[in-house]
Protein: Inositol-1-monophosphatase
Organism: Pseudoclavibacter albus
Amino acid sequence: MTTLSVPGPAELLEIARMLAREGAELARRRREEGVELAARKSSITDVVTAADREVEEHIRARLAELRPEDGFYGEEGDPSTSVDGLNWVVDPIDGTVNYLYGIPHSAVSVAVAEGDPATQPASMRVLAGVVVNLFTGEEWAACLGGGATHNGEALAVEAAPSLAESLVGTGYSYDAAERREQARVWAELSEYTRDVRRMGAAALDLTAVACGRLDVYYERGLKPWDLAAGSLIAREAGAVVKGLGEEREGAGMLLAGHPDVLAEFEPRLAAALG
Ligand code: IPD
Ligand code: CA
Ligand code: CA
């Protein structure tokens, strides 16, 4: 078997961009035709539509042709092993509940990383990532060391003057008991901020930090497919993306924002978490 060469981040970015656009177009078309609920996952509120599965299958099949030696790790199917050390990390529809309700805030998120996101998410080094809002076609993209863009325009995160003048976003778990605890923390934090948002798509929350639509975003319980592309885009735009303290971002916690604002926010979050 001939081994394919491993392309650099810029070349991987173009593959990610093509696949995210194709996925977004497919999901948009399916939404116009009518949403079909396919299953419930972790709880009654955690839904998957036929389009989630179809978009993931489409991206997976395209990668099998284009990059047969790379692994695949998507939300809806079983992971496949990488031969060359690269893994594609895909959320076929992030913001599925928005998609179901027709709230135009859902995205396809495609990233490619070194390391194994399935067994060692903390080892993941994302090389390229693209997030496309499937309703609007808005696109955020980044490759490692190459900066981030929004519809082709370069991004640079600016600091809000203070936490009191910061718009802070978060997300909630599908588990009702966890959500209750998240809401308690959220209520405590809201007192220190300009205002708060829960928009319903983690990948778009991270791109919102990258393009100045949120000053801070934090969430507990994210999966690699929720955060892979968006965290690279936010970082390449100049944001800090991290976990609590010295921790790396992951299921335990993800915080994103300009370093000056995060320095004020993180102690408040830690205190609220108790
Ligand atoms: C969810 C969304 C939501 C976040 C949840 C995610 P899904 O992803 O990103 O905003 O709060 O943690 O699971 O289920 O819509 O792909
Ligand atoms: Ca998701
Ligand atoms: Ca999803």
In short: The domain at 163-273 is CATH 3.40.190.80 (D-Maltodextrin-Binding Protein; domain 2). Helices lie at 9-33, 50-66, 96-101, 176-190, 202-210, 224-236, 259-273. The pocket of calcium ion (ligand 2) is lined by residues 91, 94, 202, 226 (CB under 6 Å).
